[in-house]
Design brief:
The complex is a heterodimer. Chain A has 2 domains: about 1-115 and about 155-190, Methane Monooxygenase Hydroxylase, Chain G, domain 1; about 195-245. Helices cover about 85% and strands about 0% of the residues of chain A. Chain A has helices at about 5-35, 45-70, 80-120, 120-135, 135-140, 145-185, 200-225, 225-245. In chain A, helix 1 (about 5-35) runs parallel beside helix 3 (about 80-120), helix 2 (about 45-70) packs parallel to helix 6 and helix 3 runs antiparallel to helix 6 (about 145-185). By secondary structure, chain B is of the alpha/beta class. Chain B has 4 domains: about 5-125, Sec1/Munc18 (SM) protein, domain 1 (Rossmann fold, 3-Layer(aba) Sandwich); about 130-230 and about 475-560, 3-Layer(aba) Sandwich (Rossmann fold), CATH 3.40.50; about 255-350, Alpha-Beta Complex (Syntaxin Binding Protein 1, Chain A, domain 2); about 370-440, no CATH class. Chain B has helices at about 5-15, 30-35, 40-45, 75-90, 105-115, 145-150, 155-175, 190-205, 240-245, 280-285, 290-310, 315-350, 355-365, 370-380, 390-400, 405-420, 425, 430-435, 450-465, 475-485, 505, 520-535, 550-560; strands spanning about 25, 50-55, 65-70, 90-100, 120-125, 130-135, 135-140, 180-185, 220-225, 255, 270, 495, 510-515, 540-545. In chain B, strand 8 (about 180-185), helix 8 and strand 9 form a beta-alpha-beta unit. In chain B, helix 13 packs parallel to helix 15. Chain B is globular. Classes of the chains: A mainly alpha, B alpha/beta. At the A-B interface, helix 3, helix 6 and helix 7 of A face strand 1, helix 2, helix 3, strand 2 and strand 3 of B. Chain B: Belongs to the STXBP/unc-18/SEC1 family.
């Protein structure tokens, strides 16, 4: 048979989910590499990570739109429950991924921070503190040594500015995602509640089928008394009346 | 071996063999409960089940892009309905799983209806009883439960109820992959009949199916009658799960209905109390009232700590942390409010109905040795206007069971009830319970007063004093499973049907499956779980025709009485 349009939408969303999963894996690797000590000054894995973060955020947004459109292609009311459940499943998966993503970003931030405290940048700051703490006497020390210290300090500053920027970017991405997931969270069932019970949902289906049947009966009844029927009766009466008049 | 885990594994496999693509899960009124206690909606959703419905003839819109995974009992009615649905081609393909052994004739009937070859596979997955807890199952016999307790009056409904028990028990044995030695309580005709029927299936009818490779050790099936211990279902309960069942009722699918409590918010009116899904409940289900109060308080404190922390969102870092923990936070808040609501409802009912006062007298009657003292306490309690008729009647029933031979005192008590306007038929329950559950009808030593040893330990126990007056009672089942585990149950009291074990090794079971006709109580599941926790090398699985509380048991007594039993 012909595959309904909403099924295609589901497939789109499922593909996005898969793509997000792959990108997150890539992001994890990029993060791991970015945290390795970087001796040459080539902007490396953190740039890759940033690009991937952007990509993932974009995918999340696209997937969210796809999931929401599943219920918007309103065709065949009988399948509404199936559609909502399909949506639910995708929303659950996306939600899980968004948690993973946030956790990943958070872990990376934490590691960055500890590196900043204890890493090469921090070492630079420490030596600066020592330097200034030593007072005027230090300036009298060998010029070459002080030049080296100045350079280290500069480098530490650039590193820390760069890192601050990175941290802001990451926090932004987490917030962005929060906004995306806010709408979908309505679809997610709280586990351990009555709503997450098979028997409860089965009852609901039965109840809605029964409700539908009642409405159908009601519709049939009201059809009998609809304005159109009344008009037809009136016209019929008039036709008969007119025939008599003509005769 | 864990029954609910075995069932869950079955369901997963069903959904996996119909892999790929969207699925509809089609069940019947019994299997929907079997499913519900082991799988949640979100778990089946994750396996692409987008529609769950009961098998019915009413045609709904064709959904050729869905695969139907049909999990139903192998009944004639189900097979017919399924046949009709096949003709209507409701779903694209059908994967049929029967919850028990399917008779050959029904398979042929199904095949004959499948003109378009929509049925991809038919299999038997043995899950034909509701796994209420890890090692507990129930059959939800409902209305026919009382009929089962009185096999003296043979009728169609008794026959059907017995058959249902046989099916439930054999499916449990099949899912545990065990062919047991079968024994029953001598004094019960119902137990003898059921044991014989199970033996017929296991050793004759389906002998091939039960031909499992001999594992080390042996499984024993012990069939008991509720009336061997009519005391336990009548007692007030003070451990969490048992208390909730006693006061509000827990459905066989672990649901608690609080819709009558208007003060509760909408999401707290219907609750789920399942050890499988709720860690706090799993930890506290056997905790007594006092300890439970402390645990709930600790839960609230911990939660408050978290909320305070989450309210103090000052930096963007805090925010990120909160957003990240939010889903868990939300789930936790639901869980906390559930237990708080239950606890506060329990405590208000307990104080309103003076359940502690009633319980103290109940325990004195059942566990004490001072008859005169017990009698005065019961009389005082009957005159307490704050006790409901329900509680007063229970006290008289318990006194009658305990001091069966003191006819005049029992008559005095029923006289008081009569004066208080309790109906004649309700008072007649005293006679009914003695007829079915009195000394002459019993096998076990219910009050520990038959042997010298039993009497002595009782006296010693009363001298020692008790830790908690409300929870002195130990159900009879406790000593029965201990003897059975040691292989020391007397053959003349609990005879074997079919083959009996020869040699001392086989006489001691490694798995003990106990089935109680008429229903089990949560006080008994507690005893079994606590026994299992000791890891003695014997695992007890407890099953019953239903899970009783006092109200249901008294109701069954009433039906027995009306049926002239």
């Amino acid at each position: 048979g012909v595959v309904p349009r909403w099924v295609e939408r589901c497939d789109d969303a499922a593909r996005d989910v898969e793509a997000i999963r792959t990108s997150l894996r890539g992001l994890r690797e990029a993060h791991a590499k970015a945290l390795l000590p970087n001796f040459d000054d080539v902007a490396g894995e953190d740039v890759v990570a940033e690009a991937l973060t952007k990509e993932v955020t974009k995918l999340f947004k696209r997937c969210d739109v796809a999931i929401r459109s599943v219920s918007e292609t309103g065709e065949g009311d009988g399948e509404e429950r199936v559609r909502v459940n399909a949506q639910r499943k995708l929303a659950m998966e996306l939600n899980k991924l968004s948690q993973d993503f946030r956790k990943q970003q958070k872990d990376y931030l934490a590691k960055l921070k500890s590196q900043q405290d204890r890493g090469p940048g921090a070492a630079g700051l420490d030596s600066y503190a020592q330097f200034s703490g030593a007072g005027a006497g230090a300036s009298a020390g060998g010029g070459g040594e002080s030049m080296l210290r100045m350079e280290m300090l500069n480098r530490a500053e650039t590193v820390s500015i760069e890192r601050d920027r990175e941290v802001m970017k990451i926090l932004e991405s987490v917030q962005d995602l929060g906004a995306v997931m806010k709408d979908l969270s309505a679809l997610i069932i709280d586990q351990g509640t009555i709503l997450d019970r098979i028997d409860y949902n089965c009852q609901e289906v039965a109840a809605s089928v029964e409700q539908g049947r009642k409405e159908l009966v009601q519709a049939e009844k009201s059809q009998k008394h609809s304005v159109a029927i009344v008009c037809i009766y009136i016209l019929l009466v008039m036709v008969i009346f007119m025939t008599f008049v003509v005769i | 071996m864990d029954l609910s885990e075995a069932h869950k594994e079955y369901v997963k496999r069903m959904l996996d063999v119909a892999k790929g693509g969207m699925k509809a899960l089609v069940c019947d009124p019994v299997t929907v409960n079997i499913l519900s206690v082991v799988m949640s909606q979100s778990e089946v959703l994750a396996r692409e089940v987008f529609l769950i419905e009961q098998l019915h003839e009413r045609p709904h819109e064709e959904m050729p892009h869905l695969k139907a995974v049909v999990f139903v009992r192998p009944t004639r009615e189900n097979v017919r309905t399924l046949g009709k649905q096949l003709k209507q081609r409701t779903y694209g393909e059908y994967h049929v799983f029967f919850s028990n052994v399917c008779p050959e004739g029904l398979l042929q009937e199904l095949a004959a209806e499948d003109d378009d070859e929509l049925v991809v596979q038919v299999q038997e997955y043995y899950a034909d009883a509701t796994a209420v807890d890890r090692n507990t199952f129930a059959l939800e016999l409902g209305e026919s439960n009382s009929a089962l307790m009185n096999p003296g009056q043979w009728s169609r409904s008794v026959g059907m109820a017995v058959d249902r028990c046989v099916e439930g028990i054999t499916s449990v044995l099949l899912s545990l992959k065990r062919r047991p030695f079968i024994r029953h309580q001598r004094s019960s005709e119902a137990a003898r009949r059921l044991a014989a029927d199970v033996a017929r299936v296991v050793y004759e009818q389906e002998a091939g199916l039960f031909d499992f490779p001999r594992a080390d050790g042996a499984a024993h099936l012990l069939v008991l009658d509720r009336f061997d211990d009519a005391v336990t279902p009548l007692l007030s309960q003070w451990t969490y799960q048992a208390m909730v069942h006693e006061i509000f009722g827990i459905s066989s699918t672990n649901r608690v209905d609080l819709r009558h409590v208007k003060a509760l918010s909408k999401e707290l009116r219907e609750l789920v109390l399942s050890a499988r899904e709720d860690a706090f409940f799993a930890e506290n289900m056997y905790a007594n009232y006092g300890d439970l109060g402390a645990s709930v308080k600790a839960l609230v404190d911990e939660f408050q700590q978290q909320t305070k922390m989450s309210k103090k969102i000052e930096s963007i870092d805090d925010m990120a942390r909160f957003v990240e923990s939010y889903p868990e936070f939300r789930a936790k808040s639901g869980n906390v409010s559930k237990h708080v609501a239950l606890m506060s409802e329990l405590s208000s009912v307990i104080s309103q109905r003076r359940l502690m006062a009633a319980s103290q007298v109940e325990q004195e009657v059942v566990c004490g040795t001072d008859r005169a003292g017990a009698f005065t306490q019961v009389v005082d309690a009957l005159r307490n206007p704050q006790l409901l008729e329900e509680e007063r009647l229970k006290l008289v029933l318990l006194f009658a069971l305990r001091y069966e031979n003191e006819q005049s005192q029992i008559a005095d008590l029923t006289e008081i009830l009569m004066q208080q306007g309790v109906s004649r038929s309700r008072i007649g329950l005293v006679r009914t319970i003695l007829k079915h559950g009195g000394e002459a009808a019993r096998t076990g030593d219910l009050f520990g007063n038959r042997s010298f040893l039993g009497r002595a330990s009782k006296v010693v126990g009363s001298l020692k004093g008790v830790e908690n007056v409300y929870t002195q009672h130990q159900p009879l089942l406790s000593s029965t499973i201990q003897s059975a585990a040691k292989g020391s149950l007397k053959n003349e009291d609990y005879p074997f049907v079919g083959p009996s074990p020869n040699g001392a090794a086989a006489a001691k079971p490694t798995e003990l499956i106990v089935f109680i006709i008429g229903g089990i109580c949560y006080e008994e599941t507690k005893v079994c779980e606590q026994f299992n926790a000791l890891k003695t090398g014997v695992t007890v699985v407890l099953g019953g025709s239903t899970v009783l509380n006092a109200r249901a048991f008294v109701d069954d007594l009433r039906k027995l009485q009306e049926a002239g039993g």
